[in-house]
Amino acid sequence: MVTAAVVQPAIRGRFSLQTRSCTWRASAPPDGREQTLAFLRSLIAARHIALQWLVESPMNGKYNVLKLRALTAFENRGWLSPRSWAVVARFTPARAAYSYLKRLYRSQLLERGFDQRGLLYYRLSERGANRLAWLRDTLAAGGFSK
Fold first, then answer.
1. Closest CA to 123 of 87, 63, 70
2. Domains held by the chain: number
3. Structural domain harbouring 51
4. Do residues 49 and 80 share a domain?
5. Same domain assignment for residues 104 and 124
């Protein structure tokens, strides 16, 4: 339900619905009370659809599943390059592996190093091994949704 909604005329006759969280805009100004109400109903319906999509998103609650798969790929393998990790973990596109592994490195779940040629490699850190154990325990207890 939209609370504290305000309909305002904007530049060039465009109208917008402003709520606490977002602003919805329409290019055609409503004419009269009935069109204004129809305009508001359509904006509220669009907002409801957007919120429903967020709730039912396929990634909702699954970010830990990806983390579990990522950390499991490093277990018992030692140092891996981002490209080879992407193959092992079935992570696509492979070029996105650099960003994802860097995120895990910043969270101190991975250690980063360079070989003699300056190529980038990652391996599981002690904190990452602890997180992997926690993720497995949580999954075994039915903790991940969907």
1. 70
2. 2
3. 6-55
4. no
5. yes
pLDDT digits (tens, 9 = 90+) for 50-93: 555 444 544 455 668 889 999 999 998 999 999 999 999 999 89
71 with 127, same domain: the answer is yes
In a domain? residue 146: no
Backbone dihedral angles phi then psi of residue 10, each to the nearest 5 degrees: -115, -165
∠ CA 119-64-49 to the nearest 5 degrees? 115
Global confidence as pTM: 0.56
For residue 133, report the phi and psi dihedrals to the nearest 5 degrees: -65, -40
HEC letters along the chain? CCCCCEEEECHHHCEEEECCCCEEEECCCCCHHHHHHHHHHHHHHHHHHHHHHHHCCCCCCCHHHHHHHHHHHHCCCCCECHHHHHHHHCCCCHHHHHHHHHHHHHCCCEEEEECCCCCEEEEECHHHHHHHHHHHHHHHCCCCCC
